[in-house]
Amino acid sequence: MKQPLLIKYVLPFTAWYALMILATIVLDYILHYFQLTSVGLYLGYVGTFLILISFLYSLRKRRVITTGSPKKYLMLHEYLAWIGSVMVLVHAGIHFNAVLPWLAIFMLLINVASGLVGKFLLKKSGESLSLKEKALLDSGMNKEEAAKELFFDAVTVSLMQKWRSIHLPIALMFGILSMLHIITITLFGK
User: Fold this and answer.
1) CA distance 96 to 122
2) pLDDT for residue 118
3) Residue 180, pLDDT score
4) pLDDT at 5
5) Closest-CA residue to 4 (of 135, 128, 150, 139)
6) What's the CA gap between 140 and 82, in Å, rounded?
7) Got the DSSP string for 25-47?
8) pLDDT for residue 1
9) For the packed helices 123-138 and 151-161, what is the interaxial angle rounded to 10 degrees?
10) Distance (Å, rounded) from C-alpha 153 to C-alpha 167?
11) What is the pTM of this model?
12) CA 34 to each of CA 30, 37, 42, 84: distance values in angstroms, whole numbers, following the listed order
C-alpha cells in the first residue's frame, strides 16, 4: 500500500524542523536550570564553526576538494548545519536586545527550512519519478511513451531541482547578517 504524500514527504520535514526547535528549548532550559547561561555565548562560536565546516560539502561539490564521497559530504553538511543551528539558536536565546541578531536568526530558520525542503522533498520527488518511470516501462510502455506520460512530473522535478537557486541566496543572506552581528559585537561589545 502506498503511503500518502503527507506522511511520506511532509511529516519527516516537519519532524526534523520541530526536533530542532525542541532540542533548542531543552538545551536552553538545561543551561538555565543549572545556571550555565554563559555557556550559550560559547555555543554561538561552536555552532558557527560547525556551520562553516558543513560548507565542505559545497567545496567537494565544486571539486575544490577532490577526495571523499560527495554523498558523505552531503550528510556531513546536513547534520553539522542542523547541530550548529541548534547551538546558534541556544546562543540567541529569547533576548530582544537588537534587531540585527534577530534578522540573522530569522534567516537561519528560513535557511534550515529551505535545506530540509531539499533534503526531503527534492530527493523524494526524484525517487518517485524514477519509480513511476520504471513501473511504466515494466508495464510494456516504451521510453518515449513513458516520457510523454511523465512529462508534467518531470517538469515538476526539474523545477524543484532549481531549489538551490533559492537556498544559496538565503544561506548567503544568513552569512552576511551573521558576519555583521559578529563585527558589531566585536566593535561595540554587548
Assistant:
1) 35
2) 83
3) 95
4) 57
5) 128
6) 44
7) HHHHHHHHHTT-TTHHHHHHHHH
8) 45
9) 160
10) 22
11) 0.81
12) 6, 8, 16, 22
In the chain, the amino acid numbered 148 is K
Give the pLDDT confidence score for residue 97 in this predicted structure. Answer: 72
Residue ranges of the chain whose pLDDT lies below 70: 1-6, 9, 95-96, 190
Which of 101, 86, 18, 75 minimizes the C-alpha distance to 46?
86
Tell me how long the chain is.
190
DSSP H helices, the chain, are 5, 11-33, 39-54, 56-61, 70-92, 99-116, 123-138, 143-149, 151-161, 164-188
Distance, CA of 106 to CA of 102 (rounded, Å): 6
User: What is residue 130's predicted lDDT score, i.e. its pLDDT?
Assistant: 87
Q: What is the pLDDT of residue 150?
A: 87
Which pLDDT value is given to residue 2?
60
For residue 69, what is the DSSP state? -
Q: Please give the single-letter amino acid code of residue 92.
A: A
C-alpha to C-alpha distance for 37 and 41, rounded to whole angstroms = 8
Q: Which of 32, 19, 181, 162 is nearest to 106 (CA)?
A: 181
Q: Residue written as cell 533576548?
A: 95
